[in-house]
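Researcher: I'd like a candidate sequence for this fold, 216 residues long. If you have to choose between options at a position, lean toward the conservative one.
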């Protein structure tokens, strides 16, 4: 599934941008929420999620790069988030947080930074519908792809198979046409791409080419 990240969209015409990637073949819309504390940048809140919900029929994949996400999760789900991912590094009671997301009717996700070992989330994999492997340090769009992070994707894909888990593996950061096949071959099922889509001239041609490279 291709998930354009609106972090790289033109916010002066956000509704048009979202409708354009939907028409171009996107499978979901990725929304990066940053609080200026857990990461150095500050982005959007529940009002934008609600606005996105009005602009598209695609599910929203909301990535909370924030401290104390438990306090905000109900607002984002009420605003229209279908998937909600929290960072393992920000949640002292991670299992409780993931169960809260499910209890409120959304799909639960856990994200880990490039320097965080996969072993840190082994105990909560049964509580997840989604694992987000960051392939850039969280906080800004347009950063270069960290290919070494794909080792965690490969390890996770084997673990999913071994433990017969039912979850999606998402890669977030630096995904573009020229590396999406490598990302897919590692075991990724959801591909977040911000500048890799929104900074191209033809969204439909870009997404079509991405999907073509996934057909291996």
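Model: Candidate sequence:
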């Amino acid at each position: 599934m291709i998930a354009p990240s609106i972090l790289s969209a033109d916010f002066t015409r956000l509704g048009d941008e979202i409708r354009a990637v939907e028409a171009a073949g996107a499978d979901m819309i990725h929304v990066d929420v940053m609080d200026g504390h857990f990461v150095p940048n500050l982005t959007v809140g529940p009002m934008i999620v609600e606005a996105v919900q009005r602009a598209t029929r695609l599910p929203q994949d909301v990535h909370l790069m924030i401290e104390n996400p438990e306090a905000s999760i109900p607002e984002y789900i009420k605003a229209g988030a279908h998937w909600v991912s929290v960072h393992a590094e920000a949640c002292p009671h991670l299992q409780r947080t993931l169960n809260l997301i499910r209890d409120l009717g959304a799909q639960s996700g856990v994200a880990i930074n490039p320097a965080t070992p996969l072993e840190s989330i082994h105990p909560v994999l049964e509580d997840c519908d989604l694992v987000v492997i960051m392939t850039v340090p969280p906080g800004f769009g347009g950063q270069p792809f960290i290919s070494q992070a794909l080792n965690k994707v490969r390890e996770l894909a084997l673990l999913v198979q071994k433990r017969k888990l039912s979850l999606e593996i998402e890669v977030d950061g630096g995904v573009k046409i020229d590396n999406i096949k490598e990302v897919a071959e590692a075991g990724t099922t959801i591909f977040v791409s911000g500048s890799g889509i929104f900074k191209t001239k033809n969204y439909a041609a870009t997404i079509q080419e991405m999907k073509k490279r996934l057909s291996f």
